[in-house]
Amino acid sequence: MTHQLKEEGKFKYLEIGEGTPMIILHGLMGGLSNFDNVAQFFPEKGYKVIIPELPLFELPLLKTNVNSFAKYLKEFITHKKLDKVILLGNSLGGHIGLLYTKQYPKNVKALVLTGSSGLYESAMGESYPKRGDRNYIKTKTENVFYDPAIATPELVDEVFETVNDRVKLIRTLAIAKSAIRHNMGKDLPKMNTPTCIIWGENDAVTPPEVGTEFHEKLPNSDLFWIKKCGHAAMMEHPDTFNEILIAWLEKRAL
Predict the structure, then answer these.
(1) Alpha-carbon distance 217 to 186, whole Å?
(2) Which domain covers residue 114, as residue numbers?
(3) Are 65 and 175 within 8 A, CB to CB?
(4) Distance from C-alpha of 174 to C-alpha of 112, rounded to nearest angstrom
(5) How many distinct structural domains can be found in the chain?
(6) What's the whole-model pTM score?
(7) Closest Cα to residue 93, out of 125, 54, 62?
(8) What angle do CA 205, 208, 212 make, to 5 degrees?
(9) Beta carbons of 146 and 121 less than 8 angstroms apart
(10) Phi, psi of 22 (to 5 degrees)
(11) Is residue 160 part of a domain?
């Protein structure tokens, strides 16, 4: 994607198109580029796609947690003067979207979860100490996807760089532990925001039963499966992902 990051104060973000605001929240090991296809598709359908760069490695260590990222999202939405947003989150991004929606339900028109944390995840946790072994990181990165070819050398290099940076490693572990501690199982039945759950049938990080549990506990949700798909459906099957989501938004008149 060739769009330039906008910088306003402490906020860095991509903004494409005009229309209903759709805020995309990336995961712990995922960058803005993970949503290239979503960001190209939805502006043509009347949506303003906004992808903030989350401050995963910028906050003080004690504030490097899910709660602080939800607070950051609140500050960003306030800064942008947005109302009735659609939140789309993958992995940690879904968790942040869930927490924001719980806290500010009137400002969320719809929530979209794909491979979201918040209930349970089998993360890369045990792999982080083996920082110097690129082949090990390559294997763990490939395991995120059904098709290992999605884990390009560039993507593996990004993960390898993160886990070999001591400051980033400490924060990555802090965020992962925060996500595990912050289980939202008891909150979900009280959340009535329309929610679209799009899940890979072969997700090894947040297994299929997690998607099913989100659907069972969120009272106003719809669950869609994508075959031969791992943890990042919007990367592995972008066309199918976009088709499911636009059809759901149109059906729900959102």
Answers:
(1) 9
(2) 6-122+183-251
(3) yes
(4) 25
(5) 1
(6) 0.92
(7) 54
(8) 130
(9) no
(10) -115, 110
(11) no
